[in-house]
Design a protein that fits this description.
Layout: E1 8-9, E2 12-16, H1 30-48, E3 56-61, H2 67-80, E4 84-90, H3 93-101, E5 109-113, E6 122-129, E7 132-133, H4 136-146, E8 159-160, H5 164-179, E9 191-194, H6 202-208, H7 237-249, E10 254-258, E11 265-269, E12 274-275, H8 278-288, E13 296-299, H9 305-314, E14 318-321, H10 326-338, E15 345-347, E16 353-355, E17 361-362, H11 364-380, E18 397-405, H12 410-428, E19 439-444, E20 449-454, E21 462-469, H13 474-485, E22 492-493, H14 495-498
Parallel strand pairs: 3-4, 3-5, 4-8, 9-10, 13-14, 13-15
Antiparallel strand pairs: 1-2, 2-6, 5-6, 6-7, 10-11, 11-12, 15-16, 16-17, 18-21, 18-22, 19-20, 20-21
Helix pairs in contact: 1-2, 1-4, 5-6, 5-11, 8-9
Length: 499
């Protein structure tokens, strides 16, 4: 088995690319990227039936400091495999998929050198073909091929292609066509963007400004792979506080924040309210609901009962609370639509969101386009964007507790804990709604209201438990129930819950 399989992280390649963090040794080098690039050509040739010498492959990167060297290695490997390669420079993960779709490029496959929101010393590679992002088993195959490929030296060079302007024009035209209101349909709107020094700065200069928006107060737009201001991550508290402050200080109508490679986003409303996790799913769903009445919204497992109420009772949609992992929710979305069950949105609380009408692509910038269009339409009607989710019940109390499993066979032990947890809950007469991941309990009585979800981490020896109370004081009652249901598991470290 190839040592390179250790670099697999779900459907991505991830590793340590530069020194600088104690205890983290470099395991993703330009030479390794070269091997992987050569292997991807072999894999793509086999899948498409197109000879390697006819394959056209695009490669882009985000702002990480290791990006240029790894990109060069990856490109060398692809060239040595016989493909024609286009170096797209600074790009975004969604743009690299769209390079397969755009008639100006029509690549057979593409790769993005990125590690999303991870620290500066990490990097990785995401691959695409015409069907979207490669699956877990595809990456396994690529990395296994790499174990015996020895890329040869060659005298070929990649073609330079500046992809971001093409991608930005596509997004700008989408806003303009949906609003159909002259050359500057965003005139009079104040929108600030926080790029966190990732790759999303183009959203200001190439989309918002040309359409007439005031972008004063936008910040950290310059790519800087050391991320000196905050981690570009919509789930990070410091990052969300940064965009929140920018909105309030500049009296903006909307704030947008993206992760490093722009496949995730969150927002802040004019009053400083954060639109992330459940509320960003609610907002996008409310935008889509008139176009797709009665359709199904697919989310990951940690979304709230509040969201289910909003989607089903207020919007008249169906909610499929599925599994963690953005590929899982997107693949379920593809499956349902193939069966004739309309599922316009698949979205994780992390900010990954894919639209059926956008190639099932988790594209943070395209979601931002939807928000910007909704903002402009609301303003025309004398409303604010938050009117879309005014009936979403507010978050009152919540907690996430991570239980470490002290057992080498942690998956088996975790499964046994879940089985016993479920038995105990059933014996108590608690409500157990359908759950595709872990065990979920729902409480709707007078004594206590809220929910508990216990699940097993996909990769780590950890069992996360999410708890949300619907009213003040409910969280403490739910924690007491959770303690009782998890008593006696000697290899489960519940110290975070017992504090």
């Amino acid at each position: 088995m190839s040592d390179l399989l250790k670099l697999q992280n779900g459907s991505d390649v991830r590793g340590v690319a530069v020194e600088g963090v104690e205890g983290e040794n470099v395991n993703l080098t330009p030479q390794i990227a070269k091997q992987i690039g050569c292997a991807f050509v072999s894999w793509l040739e086999k899948k498409t039936g197109v000879p390697a010498y006819e394959l056209r492959i695009g490669v882009g990167r985000d702002s990480r400091i290791s990006g240029p060297d790894l990109t060069n290695g990856l490109i060398e490997g692809m060239l040595s495999g016989g493909a024609t390669v286009f170096d797209c420079g600074m790009a975004t993960t969604p743009a690299m998929f769209m390079s397969i779709v755009f008639p100006e490029t029509s690549f057979h496959g593409s790769a993005m050198v990125t590690a999303s929101h991870l620290p500066f010393n990490r990097n990785g590679i995401k691959f695409f073909d015409a069907d979207g992002g490669l699956e877990h088993e595809d990456i396994t195959e690529v990395l296994t091929i790499s174990g015996w490929l020895n890329p040869v030296a060659n005298n070929y060079a990649a073609h330079k292609f500046n992809l971001l302007p093409l991608y930005a024009e596509h997004l700008k035209n989408t806003i303009a066509s949906e609003l159909n209101d002259g050359d500057q349909p965003l005139k009079g709107l104040h929108i600030v963007v926080d790029s966190g020094n990732g790759a999303s700065g183009f959203f200001v200069d190439k989309i918002l400004k040309p359409l007439g928006a005031d972008t004063t107060g936008s910040q950290f737009l310059e790519p800087d792979g050391m991320f000196p201001n905050h981690i570009p991550n919509p789930e990070n508290k410091a990052a969300m506080e940064a965009i929140r402050s920018a909105v309030l200080n500049n009296k903006a109508d909307l704030g947008l924040i993206f992760d490093t490679d722009v496949d995730r986003m969150s927002a802040v409303l004019s009053d400083g309210s954060e639109v992330n996790r459940d509320s960003i799913i609610a907002m996008i769903s409310a935008i889509l609901a008139p176009q797709y009445p009665g359709s199904t919204i697919i989310t990951d497992s940690v979304t709230s009962d509040r969201l289910t109420y909003f989607l089903e009772k207020e919007l008249g949609l169906k909610h499929l609370c599925y599994m963690r992992g953005y590929k899982n929710v997107i693949n379920k979305q593809k499956e349902l639509n193939a069966k004739g069950i309309v599922a316009p949105l698949a979205m994780e609380t992390s900010g990954h969101g894919a639209l059926k009408d956008n190639y099932y692509l988790d594209d943070g910038a395209f979601l931002a386009v939807k928000l910007v269009v909704a903002l402009a339409k609301a303003a025309k009607e004398g409303k604010k964007l938050d009117s879309l989710i005014e009936k979403l019940p507010p978050l009152v109390e919540e907690g996430e507790y991570r239980f470490k499993i002290n057992d080498e066979n942690f998956k088996d032990y975790g499964k046994s804990v879940l089985e016993e947890f479920k038995k105990r809950a059933e014996a108590k007469g608690y409500e157990l709604p359908q759950s595709f991941e872990g065990v979920r309990l729902s409480f709707k009585g007078e004594d206590v209201q809220g929910w508990i979800l216990l699940r097993l981490s996909l990769h780590d020896p950890v069992m996360p438990m999410n708890i949300e109370g619907a009213r003040k004081g409910d969280l403490a009652k739910l924690i007491a129930i959770a303690k009782e249901l998890t008593d006696g598991f000697d290899k489960l470290d519940r110290s975070s819950l017992l504090k």
